[in-house]
Amino acid sequence: KTYRIASIPGDGIGVEIIKQTIRVLKRLEELLGTFNIEFHNYDWSSERYQNTGEYIPTGGLESLKNHDAILFGAVGSVDVADHISLWGLILPIRKMLGQYVNVRPIRILPGLSSPLKDCSIEDLDWVMIRENSEGEYAGQGGITHEGTEYAIANDVAVFTRQGIERTMRFAFEIALSRPRKHLTMVTKSNAQRHGMVLWDKVFHELAPHYPEVKTDKMLVDAMTVRMVLKPRSLDTIVATNLHGDILSDLAAALAGSIGVAPSSNLNPTRQFPSMFEPIHGSAPDIAGLGVANPVGTFWCAAEMLAWMGETKARSSLMKAIECVCAAGVRTKDIQGTSNTFEVTEAVIRALEKE
Ligand code: NAI
Ligand code: MG
């Protein structure tokens, strides 16, 4: 079987880690010999935007549809305002390709340590499901009296029953597939009295359809405390676009580093390809130094393989990543001294030894 993968490195460290991830995938393909991967590179970046005025050229989204999956690095540059770059590249892909859930597994990889006191590998093993198409990132709103002292800006969070329900069903299914079968829903339905109240309502309606899943609800502010003080009490988590975005950075830090955390932007209907990207951004502070942690993107590649049905390839890659982390070949953000290339080489060697 041949898979067609669109790679979009984007900006900053995105370019460095996607390059290394492709090397790892190519070696894995050779070693297993059970599938082929064809990479199609898309140079959609902030540099391109500065030269041409657009991130995605005309017809670009259509051409992405001719792939089995998309591997994405990061977008964001000090030369372009962040809302322009995000809305120019990543958000249109998520929205136009129907990638309505964002799945973020979080656990402490072997050899890594949590900044939390006495937090072992068993204490922190979560999957965060983030609504990925609407809510606070609906993009609606505007500004009136712009440029005056009377400026008023609105960002309208749009929640639809259909959007909430499909995300929550997905979350219940994930919870059901995990040993602890526990789903926590996060909102701020005390202060935001329309959309978040609809989240509560849909959650209560769906829960009886999943009698094996234990459920509870948290307000997002209290949730941050629970994540830090009682990590073991959590398992599967479902949250809105904004809350899921924020909580997953916190979760990643609690599991060791933002540099190791993967995310899958899934189109569960499989009508269009899904996109796999690390949760971190383009990290301008370390871009070009060759020291970015590639592990989050390697983990994304493993999730991508699994989504395409290559579960054996996923386990080989995860095993190699875990073996390298445990052996101490790590970047600085996870208390190591190796650079991006050295970690990649170590992962390739580990694959060869399997
Ligand atoms: P960031 O995630 O890029 O960086 C935050 C901190 O974590 C920095 O100190 C960075 O050096 C470190 N870090 C991130 N990834 C790392 C890795 N793989 N290895 C080692 N250290 C790592 O977030 P920040 O600084 O808020 O945003 C920078 C740019 O990225 C902005 O333009 C922002 O809009 C964009 N961004 C893009 C995202 C995307 O493409 N999906 C997601 C988040 C931010
Ligand atoms: Mg984020």
From TrEMBL:
Recorded hits in Pfam families, A to Z, give: Iso_dh (PF00180)
Q: Which domain of life is it from?
A: Eukaryota
The alphabetical list of record keywords is:
Magnesium, Manganese, Metal-binding, NAD, Oxidoreductase
Query: Where in this chain does the record put each Isopropylmalate dehydrogenase-like domain?
Result: 4-347
Q: What class of enzyme is it?
A: oxidoreductase
The UniProt entry, under InterPro entries, shows: ICDH/IPMDH, IsoCit/isopropylmalate_DH_CS, IsoPropMal-DH-like_dom, TTC_DH
What's one GO MF term for it? Answer: D-malate dehydrogenase (decarboxylating) (NAD+) activity
Query: Gene3D superfamilies under this entry?
Result: Isopropylmalate Dehydrogenase
For this protein, what reaction is catalysed?
A: (R)-malate + NAD(+) = pyruvate + CO2 + NADH
**UniProt KW Isomerase keyword:** no
**What cofactor requirement does the entry state?**
Mg(2+); Mn(2+)
Q: What is its EC number?
A: 1.1.1.83
Asked if the keyword Cell division belongs to this entry, the reply reads no
Q: Which PROSITE patterns match?
A: IDH_IMDH
Note the NCBIfam families from the entry. Answer: TTC
What family name appears in the similarity comment?
A: Belongs to the isocitrate and isopropylmalate dehydrogenases family.
This chain's protein is named D-malate dehydrogenase (decarboxylating)
The lineage, from the top, is: Eukaryota, Fungi, Dikarya, Ascomycota, Pezizomycotina
